[in-house]
Amino acid sequence: MAINPRIPTMNRPLANVEALVTVVEQLRQGVESLAGARGSPLDRAVTLNDLINLGLATEADIKAKIR
Fold it and tell me: In angstroms, rounded to a whole number, what is the distance separating the alpha carbons of residues 37 and 23?
């Protein structure tokens, strides 16, 4: 899968507090990007509810596939 350069990547955490703070900040930025709270709206994640609301899937279809 290709990595979207507009969504922040994460460093591997090290065993010191400064490195852990950096990783937590990178996680926060990534979650905010995927949630649509930061960055381009075109980079936010599409949820199953989005697909249902757009008529591209039904709840029954999704439930049948995730069991």
Answer: 19
**Residue 31's domain spans which residues?**
17-65
Is this structure's pTM higher than 0.85?
no
Torsion of CA 56, 59, 65, 67, to 10 degrees: 160
Q: What number of other Cβ atoms are within 10 A of residue 35's Cβ?
A: 11
Cα Rg, the chain, nearest whole Å: 16
pLDDT tens profile 11-52: 676 778 888 888 889 889 989 999 999 999 998 999 999 999
Contact 57, 50 (CB under 8 A): no
Do you know the residue count of the chain? Answer: 67
Count of domains in the chain? Answer: 1
Asked, for residue 2, whether it belongs to a domain, the answer is no
Read off the amino acid at residue 16: N
